[in-house]
Amino acid sequence: MIGALQRRYETYFADRPGVPFAVADAGAQPHRFGAGDPLFTITVRDPRAAKALTSLDQFGVAVAYLEGWLDVDGDLGEALRMRTFFHDIHPIKWLSQFAPALVKGRKASDREAISHHYDEDSEFFLSFLDERHRCYTEGVFASDDEPLEDAMTRKMDLAYDALGLEPGDHVLEIGGGWGAWVEYAGKRGVEVTTLTLSKESERYLAKLIADEGLPARVVREHVFAYTSRTRYDAIVNMGVTEHLPNYRATIRKYAELVKPGGHVYLDALAMRRKHNISTFMSRYVYPGGQSPLLLHEYLHEVARSPFELISLQDDRHNYYLTCLLWAQRLDARRDEIVARWGEPLYRRFRLFLWGSAAGFDTGLVQAYRWVLRMPEGAAA
Fold first, then answer.
1. Mean pLDDT by 10 residues, the chain (380 residues)
2. Radius of gyration for the chain, computed over Cα atoms and rounded to the nearest angstrom
3. For residue 297, what is the domain's CATH number?
4. DSSP per residue, 25-47
5. Do 322 and 217 have their domain in common?
6. Residues 182 and 79 in one domain
7. Is residue 136 part of a domain?
8. CB of 322 within 8 A of CB of 154?
C-alpha cells in the first residue's frame, strides 16, 4: 500500500505543489508523504481499505470511507481537493446512469433518482441548511464571511426582482425542496404552483402551505408530464436543471408553460463535459441520469428557441461558500445526526458536501444563474 501511494505521489506531484499527508494502520505510526506537517491523515481500520488505497481507485476509497473501513482526520476538504490523485475509470458507470431511463422511461427513472436523495427525513436536511429559508441550492454572498441566511435572502431577492414579479402573479416552481421559494414568494402575494417528485418534499410542502396560509399548491409530478390550462407569469428552477439533461425538451416545456413577456429564472452547477460526475456521485448521491449543466450546449438550445437570454452570472464561488457552510454545519451536528439517522448517512453526506465544496473551490465544478425571457408575441 505504502509503495503504491509513494509512486503515485511522485508522479502526481511532479509538476504541481506537493500536499503533505499521512497514512497509518490503526494504532501504528503514520507514514508521511511530502514535506511539512500532514494536512490530513488517512487511518486504515480494515484490510479492505488498504486494498482500496493500493488500487488507487477513487470509488473504492470512497466506499471504504462510507463503510468505516478508513477514516480521514484533519482537513477533509484538503483531501478531497486532490481527489484526482486516485483514478475514477469505471466504464460501467454509464450503464448505471442511463440504463434506468432507457428501461423504465425518463420520468419513472427521475422519480426514483430524486427519491433516493430527497426522501430522507426532512429534519436531516434541515440540520445543515440555512435556518431562514431552508434553501438547497447556492446563496449569493456579499462577502466570504456573510451568514448563510443573509446570502439566501439575497438570492431570493435577486430571483424575485429578475422575474419582475408583483402580488397576484402566478409562478410555476420546478423542484419545491423545503419551501424556500414557496414561502418567500407566497408571503409577497405571489401564487405558486410547485412541482416535486419526492414524497417527503410533498409532505413537508403541503404542511408548510397549510400552516402558513400560503397562496400555493404542491403537485407531485414530473415537469415533462405536467400540463396547465393557463400559462404562468414566470417559472423558477433552482438547482433542478442538473436533473433535466435533455435541454431541448426542457426549454420547449418552458415555452409551453410561460406567458409571452414572462421570465424563467434558473441556477445550476456545471462542468465542462456532460455526464462527468464521479462514480461515487452517480452511485450514492444522485443515481440515474443526473448531469451537471453543460453551458455551451444549453445556450445553443436557447438560441434555437424563442427565448431571449437576459442575464448570466458566474456563481462558482457562491456555491463553494454555500457547500462549505453546509459541510461545517453537518459536522457541528455529527453526534445528533448519527444518533438519529445513523453513521452511514452522515458519512455519505459528509463526503458529498465537503467534496462539492472542494470541487467548486478548485474549479473542477462551475455554477451559473441565468434568466430567460419569452418575447411578447412569441409562439410556444
1. 96 95 90 96 96 96 96 95 90 52 51 57 95 97 98 98 98 97 98 95 96 98 96 97 94 98 97 77 75 94 98 98 98 98 96 96 96 84
2. 22
3. 3.40.50.150
4. ETTSPPEEESSSS-SEEEEE-SH
5. yes
6. no
7. yes
8. no
